Amino acid sequence: MEIALGFAIALAISLTGVGAGTMTTPLLILLLGISPPTAVGTALAFGAIVKVASVPVYAARRQVNLRVLGWLLVGGIPGVLVGSLALDRLKRGPHQGALYAVLGCLIAATAVYRLYRVFKPAPPRPDRDRVRLLPWFALPIGAEVGFSSAGAGALGSLLLLSMTPLTAVEVIGTDLCFGLGLAATGSIIQVGAGNYDGALLLKLVIGGLVGAITGSALAGRIAQRPLRVALLVVLIVLGCRLALHP
């Protein structure tokens, strides 16, 4: 079951571009009955491993803007620390219902936003480089990633499109590295706190590697837009179910 789940998640990521964190956390909680903190920690580690396989390709092609990436991480990494501490605080308190509600709402809201972006044209390129403002906007993105494992891909790409003159491929490469940095930082924190399942992570990675290879082979042969819309609708439903979890 876990290997098949890792395969399905990686396949969907390869075909639609929907982030690993947005998908993995609700599926682990609702399908496997994993606790929210363990699901978030495992999802962050899984997402970091998945991204590691892609980052060298963009780096070798010089499609990662290191200056912009640095400004993103200046705000994003402290945000991950804040989000991780908030998750740990709720885990230790008598507010498990609130934890499910917040996680579900964040995941559903992220999926709604990505669905909105599917039908809305990309924002116009900014007239000037506002890179020095990036840390202030990256901080809440990092907090969301640290708390729910979701949000870095969709929100990070919008931030880069709106505030920098990067090309489309540079946006993808830089945002991918940003997501890797946040996922790696968050996973280290959660693993240190014991919020992960090593055996489950291994099975997800095994299935994920096969799914990524399969998705790469199928890319371009399957219409991505209808598949992405369908997947995002499913994620909205999963987020709502998670928010209403007893």
**Helical residue percent?**
over 70%
Quote the distance from N terminus to C terminus: 24 Å
Largest β sheet strand count, sense and barrel closure: none
Instruction: Tell me the total number of β-strands.
Output: 0
Radius of gyration, in angstroms, nearest whole number: 17 Å
The H/E string reads HHHHHHHHHHH
List the helices and strands and how they pair.
Layout lengths: L1 H15 L3 H13 L3 H17 L2 H6 L5 H27 L3 H24 L14 H15 L3 H12 L4 H25 L5 H21 L5 H20 L3
Helix pairs in contact: 1-2, 1-10, 2-3, 2-11, 3-9, 3-10, 5-7, 5-9, 6-11, 7-8, 8-9
Describe the structure.
It is a single chain. The protein has 246 residues and is mostly helical. Helix content is 79%, strand content 0%. The protein contains eleven helices and no strands. It has helices at residues 2-16, 20-32, 36-52, 55-60, 66-92, 96-119, 134-148, 152-163, 168-192, 198-218, 224-243. α1 packs antiparallel against α2, α1 (2-16) runs parallel beside α10 and α2 (20-32) packs across α11. The two termini are 24 Å apart. 48% of the residues are buried. The model has no long low-confidence stretch (mean pLDDT 81).
Tags for this model:
246 residues, 0% strand, mainly alpha
Quick structural gist:
By secondary structure, the protein is mainly α.
